[in-house]
Amino acid sequence: MSNKEVKAALKSARDAIRNKEYKEALKHCKAVLKQEKNNYNAWVFIGLAAAELEQPDQAKGAYKKAIELEPNQLLAWQGLANLYEKSNQTDVRGDLTDVYQKLLQLLESGDKQKWCDVCNKLVDLYHQEKKYLEVAETWQKLIRMKQEEGAEKAELHQLWKKMIQLLKDSTQNQDNKTEQSLLTAFEHAVNSADTVPGEDHQNLYKDFIQCLSKFPHETARLEKACHDMMALYPTVSYPLEALCLHFVQSGTLSEEALHWFSRLLEMDANSGPGIIGFGIKCLQEKKYKEAVKSLTEGLQKTSQCPAAWHYLAEAQMKIHKHRDAVLCCNRALEAFGTPEGPSLRWKNLILQLKAEALIKIADDDAAEEAIKVLEQIVDASSDPVVLAIRGQAYLNKGLMDQASKISQELLLSHPDLAESHALEGFIHYSQKNYEQAERSFLNAIERKAETAEYHQYLGLTYWFMSDETKKDKGKALTQFLKAAKLDNYLGSVFCYLGNYYRDIVGDKSRARGCYKKAFELDGTDEESGTAAVDLSVELGDMDTALSILNEVTEKASTGTAKWAWLHRGLYYLRTGQPSQAVADLQAAIRADPKDSNCWESLGEAYLSRGSYSTALKSFRKASELNPGLVYSIYKAAAVEQILGKYENAIATYQQILKKTEDYVPALKG
After folding, report:
1. Helix locations, 414-507, DSSP H
2. Residue range 244-267: mean pLDDT, rounded
């Protein structure tokens, strides 16, 4: 076959392909290859025809042979790209990537439009495979090409926006180069917008700031973006809110931060971040109740802010609302994604605070949970304060050996740490080794004199210490007063002061004031509530007694606050209001159905009301629960007598007299 015949055969093959006569085309090509086995065009045409005849392996082989012969010719590469694009097999993606990269090289100095088309395809391929760094690098090449070609500002703006779209899901990958490319795209996009200010531009800026807030190390850029947007859109609160949330999350509240919080509240009094900022300011100023109020309100509007939940938990701890603090710590932990970097520091702080709150709850389950929480703290074993908390958790759980081991280790490794001595003090106090406890608490106070709890426990140590300190409770009083001065939200210390003034000094009025304060601070403290009511009654101040009881019973859920229902029921019974007495005593019994005294009092109330049958049932229930309650047995007999059940009454009177021969009411009955 002459050169002329080869050309004619190739032309026939091309025409056959154009007419979709692919088998015919293959015949012509094979004829050419018999003559010229390295004919580039013949191999390309075989590739094309085989691809159309759905013989992908033959097509691929033909294209590769052509590429081997002339690696820098376009046709075979383009054919191979088409072949891979039509394939449904995912394993060809890697090969297709290589083909596109080669095509970009070959087209760079030629057809710019084709180069851009291939570039777009390559970027799509990288994007499908979540290769964000390659997406960024390839798209930036496309933008550079467009810039060299003198593209309009509007076209470039759209390209930067497209790059943002392509990379916006990459923020989870934490790849620094990709991250920088995304931020660069945002900067170019906000600076190349046509209509400024305008709605699209404003939304773009919002997205930019939102993106920056995901990168804790980009604080300078975030602050600049917020300030720039505030300058362009002075009436829009978003950049100011983002800036304020940034300050909250940073954990350092400077004068500048407080200034921006105030500015935000001036602009929008209902702004969540603004109210949170005000709450943190209150916390700094030790206005703990206001802090709790503002932080709670702010978090209802802006709940995904772990640092704000931590501040709220901290404020709850300051006013000794330990269960509320635990709930806030849980919300803070939920608000985290996967903590890294600064977030990890926050997470550790929150876990530590949660453990401290659980220890203050001081029951067995809380202690066990505290131990589990402490295990989640990263590098906990190297932090002596966390170790001391763990020691307290073991102590609350009754695991004395583990608590003592930690205490001994801390005293050796950190003798200057107040918490080391305090833990030793708590252990001695729990074992009633009061002299050793005194020494430990004095050592703790020497190192950290501002901790109210240490003074409180030193006071309790003196209270229980020995006969000498039992007679003279002056030392205990001094410590209790110091604790109350250092922490005027510490309800338990006011209860101890009440005990001192009532039992040692005999000053009922002052004692009542202390109990009342203790109960106002901790509504679950029944001892203080009961003592405040009893002393009010003794002082003839029924109004105060009733106001305390009314407040408790109004808030009480079913089956709680037995003491308050019982006290008020007895008051109504004494003052001739039997129906109210019945209602309150029934509520007391719902709280504790096995209290024989409540049943006896309820019997009295029914009797006063003239409900004899129910009175009889109540007295019988009381004597069933406590057979030693002679009065209840006697009252049951007396009611039977009223109801005309004389035989039953006589039998019950005789039963009483067998046990207590000289019980006069029974003899009379």
Report:
1. 418-430, 434-447, 452-464, 467-471, 474-486, 491-499
2. 86
Q: Which two tokens stand for residue 143?
A: 């933008």
Domain boundaries, the chain: 195-302
Residue ranges of the alpha helices (H) in 168-198?
176-191
| Buried-state track 95-113, b at ≥16 Cβ within 10 A, e below 16 | bbbebbebbbebbeeeeee
CA nearest neighbour of 99 among 82, 111, 86? 82
Q: How far is CA 507 from CA 470, 478, 498, 510, 543, in A?
A: 18, 17, 9, 6, 20
- DSSP code string of 338-397: S--THHHHHHHHHHHHHHHHHHHH-SHHHHHHHHHHHHTSTTGGG-HHHHHHHHHHHHHH
**Structure tokens of 564?**
């308050």
Q: How far apart are the first and last CA of the chain?
A: 143
- In a 10 Å sphere around its CB, with 0-12 CB exposed, 13-18 middle and 19+ buried, how is residue 325 labelled? buried
Rounded-to-integer distance, Cα 270 and Cα 577, Å: 49
Q: Per residue in 1-53, pLDDT tens?
A: 678 888 999 999 999 999 999 999 999 999 999 989 999 999 999 999 999 99
Q: How is domain 195-302 classified at the architecture level of CATH?
A: Alpha Horseshoe (1.25)
Supply the pLDDT for residue 173. Answer: 67
Residue 440 has pLDDT above 50, yes or no: yes
The model scores a pTM over 0.70: yes
Distance separating alpha carbons of residues 326 and 357, to the nearest angstrom: 6
Q: What are the tokens at 597? A: 């005294």
| Cβ–Cβ under 8 Å, residues 462 and 479 | yes
448-491 residue pLDDT tens: 999 999 999 999 999 998 766 556 788 999 999 999 999 999 99
